[in-house]
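Give me structure tokens for this 292-residue protein.
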Amino acid sequence: MANVIEKFGVTSGKAFKLKNYKTDDPGSMEKKEALADLVDFQTELKEYQERLYAEDSQSLLVILQAMDAAGKDGAIEHVMSGVNPQGCQVFSFKQPTSNDYEHDFLWRHYKALPERGRIGIHNRSHYEYVLICRVHPEYNLSERIPGYRNVKDFNAEFWEDRYESIRQFEAHLHRNGTKIIKFFLHVSKEEQKKRFLDRIEDNYKNWKFSASDIDERAYWDAYMSAYETAIASTATPASPWYIIPADKKWFARYAVGKIIVETLKQMEPEFPKLPENQKEKLKSYKEKLERE
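Here you go.
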């Protein structure tokens, strides 16, 4: 199929409309082909992760955002299977704690950034502060920001400041060696309904179901608007968004895996090369070991 980076990538918010992206768009890709390719991606991913780790200069931050039941956990499990845990860090962000609220909204996310040489995955991220907090602005009151004491205080200027903080945060990380790629797993409301019903009917999936998920479906349109604005406001060439069709889990996993591997290739991590004097020492060590 066409290059997934070009097809699903968003590097500028100019003229961006979420309605222009389908939730079910595998092109000519067949499930069997995608699953076979995913195995190849995992092999390449392992190789490039080793290079990244050995180089110890750059890091990759993968951000996954989506509505409930869109497949974030499954994408992490299938795409990152076989990767050395030593070089990969996964953080799933839930509701902020009281300690989190003692700091600015980026604080807990900055603490979770991948070290040099690592791949970091954020299952939900700092974007929750312009997504769920945009749909439910009353949550912002817990931050106790000076000048904002009422829900009505969270005006257009407040949200633009949030987007600007995110853009500066990501630009700073990019300048210092952390490549950021952001995925929105774009699932339809009807497909979400099917997956919720599956969780209810399957005893082995009951634990995944939450009554709050049903409550949030009532705000679907508001969430779509929040996602559209957040993506349009923060998509840049250095930190792009990818709008991944997620109605077919197998295709979403294929696309995410493909984009991660292609991004790592573009980063060009290399195994360190020893200076000539050290190579000569290796020869002497080899000879010493062989004489034993």
